[in-house]
Write a structure and sequence with these properties.
By secondary structure, this protein is an alpha+beta fold. It has 2 domains: 1-72; 98-192, hypothetical protein PF0899 fold (2-Layer Sandwich), CATH 3.30.2320.30. It is built from 4 helices and 4 strands, in the order ααβαβββα. The chain has helices at residues 2-97, 99-114, 131-140, 172-192, and strands at 122-126, 145-149, 156-160, 167-171. It has a 4-stranded mixed β-sheet with strand order 2-1-3-4. Helix 3 links the parallel strand 1 and strand 2. Helix 1 packs across helix 4 and helix 2 (99-114) packs across helix 3. The longest helix has 96 residues, at 2-97. The protein starts with a helix and ends with a helix. Belongs to the V-ATPase E subunit family.
């Protein structure tokens, strides 16, 4: 009887053990399934976040590239405009060296400088080598000025009133400098349209 009882107890223990093991396996499978679901959810969320980060990075890169391209275009346009003004300055320099055109240039510059200014006993300063031309033009325009050469004036004239309170500088460089602001937009329009 003890042996039967022992066998019965062993059998009950095996059944109980198998039942507990089955429950434990079922619970482990549930935990594993839940963990796998959680991993899938986390992976999907991570993928979405990474896609967002990549999209944001692409947008930032495109924006940076667009800004860089705009800056390069602006720089190229500025260089083109500077080139136009450099060529204009060179051409004006050639005009100043041509005696026939130089006389007309001095007539214009001196005439404009003298407009509305009392020139009697004034001083007309010109660059080195321009005193003869300036004297002839002054006489032709009926100006009673003293003509002086100075290295401080180049490509034009500086007219000072008798009382020395009014000084008018009218040089090719100063005119181009004053006109530059107004001309930049016009040059840009000519080069690239409106």
């Amino acid at each position: 009887m003890t042996s039967e009882l022992l066998q019965l107890l062993e059998q009950e223990a095996r059944v109980e053990r198998d039942k507990t093991l089955a429950e434990a396996r079922a619970r482990a499978e549930q935990i594993l399934a839940a963990a796998q679901k959680e991993v899938e959810v986390l992976q999907a969320e991570h993928r979405r976040r990474m896609e967002g980060v990549r999209a944001q990075a692409r947008t930032q890169a495109a924006s940076a590239a667009s800004l860089r391209a705009a800056a390069l275009l602006l720089q190229a346009k500025d260089e083109a405009i500077q080139s136009v003004f450099a060529r204009a300055t060179e051409e004006l320099g050639r005009v100043a060296k041509d005696p026939a055109r130089r006389l007309g240039l001095f007539r214009l510059l001196i005439g404009e400088a003298a407009q509305g200014l009392p020139t009697k006993r004034g001083i007309l300063e010109v660059g080195p080598g321009d005193a003869g031309t300036a004297t002839d033009v002054s006489k032709d325009l009926g100006l009673a000025v003293e003509v002086k050469e100075t290295p401080q004036v180049s490509g034009g004239v500086r007219l000072t009133s008798e009382d020395r309170r009014i000084i008018i500088e009218n040089t090719v460089a100063s005119r181009l400098s004053r006109a530059r602001t107004a001309l930049v937009s016009r040059v840009a329009e000519i080069l690239w349209g409106s």
